[in-house]
From TrEMBL:
TM spans (from-to): 12-33, 66-90, 102-125, 137-158, 179-201, 237-258
Entries under CDD domains matching the protein: TM_PBP2
Localization per record: Cell membrane
Residue span, ABC transmembrane type-1 domain: 67-258
Keywords assigned: Cell membrane, Membrane, Transmembrane, Transmembrane helix, Transport
UniProt organism field: Paenibacillus xerothermodurans
Gene3D superfamilies linked to this entry: MetI-like
Protein name: Carbohydrate ABC transporter permease
Family: Belongs to the binding-protein-dependent transport system permease family.
């Protein structure tokens, strides 16, 4: 009984946190189904008639195009990030050479680089490459700024893997290429899930590079498109909430599908 009573404050704290974090999302979803008249008559109610006209209006304003651009950029950038960071983490953690630690510190130092200090150089470089105001203009910056934390997590996780399996494979005549693809990479699943989810959320919600490198509405990603929505639908709050609800669904879906692997990867790979 005493042990159960000790858990009561934790449950109370968890309930309070749930209210503070869950109510805004619940309010956003409930408001998205209201008409403008219902919202102005009772803006704080969570129960009302369900109207899908706000979601139709969001798609009429170009939400589908913003979604497609964001999905394209996110999938390609995350894919390249996972591939490059996995390939880099293997020699950094399993091979001994002169510049091993130097290269690792050089990669990790990228986490301390302020993004805003690179906006002008990246804009000039993108313009000189002829990629300005195009979706591919975002691939380079997104991959580059996702690599440091990804390489750090994968390198630390890989260094903790048992070497016995790798040594047995070397005795059997396996090359480093076969060892990486057939042995090491499958064992990196928790850490790979971590960097996939982390980078997916970061790239999906990234705004500043999209603002600097894109200008045409047909090339805008979802965060930049939401700013345009806010300008057009400032008074139509339910329609704006509908757009925000749709924009948040991919993040929630991806997170709920792999939330356990996120915890496993961070505790197992980021802490040596």
């Amino acid at each position: 009984m005493t042990a159960a009573l000790k858990q009561v404050p934790l449950y109370v704290l968890a309930l309070v946190l749930l209210v503070f974090t869950g109510y805004p999302f619940l309010y956003m979803v409930a408001t998205s189904f209201k008409t403008q008249e219902q919202f102005f008559m009772d803006p704080f109610s969570l129960i009302g008639s369900i109207q899908f006209s706000n979601y139709a209006l969001a798609f009429e304003k170009g939400l589908a195009g913003y979604f497609f651009n964001s999905i394209t950029v996110t999938v390609i950038a995350v894919g390249f990030t996972v591939l490059i960071s996995a390939l880099a983490s293997y020699p950094l953690s399993r091979m001994k050479f002169r510049l091993n630690k130097t290269l690792f510190l050089l990669f990790v130092s990228g986490m301390m680089l302020p993004i805003h200090s690179t906006l002008i150089p990246i804009f000039i470089l993108t313009k000189n490459m002829g990629l300005i105001d195009s979706v591919p203009a975002l691939f380079g910056p997104y991959v580059a700024f996702s690599l440091p934390i990804s390489i750090f997590i994968l390198t630390q996780f890989t260094s903790e893997l048992p070497r016995e399996v790798e040594e047995a494979a070397e005795i059997d005549g396996c090359s480093h290429r076969h060892i990486f693809w057939n042995i090491i990479l499958p064992m990196l699943t928790p850490a790979l899930a971590t960097i996939v989810i982390y980078n997916f959320i970061h790239i999906w919600t990234e705004f500043i590079f999209a603002l600097v490198l894109l200008s045409s509405p047909e090339n805008m990603t979802l965060p930049l498109g939401m700013q345009k929505f806010y300008g057009e639908l400032t008074i139509n709050v339910p329609a704006l909430m509908a757009a925000l609800t749709l924009a948040s669904l991919p993040i929630l879906l991806v997170y709920f599908l792999a939330q356990e692997k996120i915890v496993t990867g961070l505790t197992g790979g980021a802490v040596k």
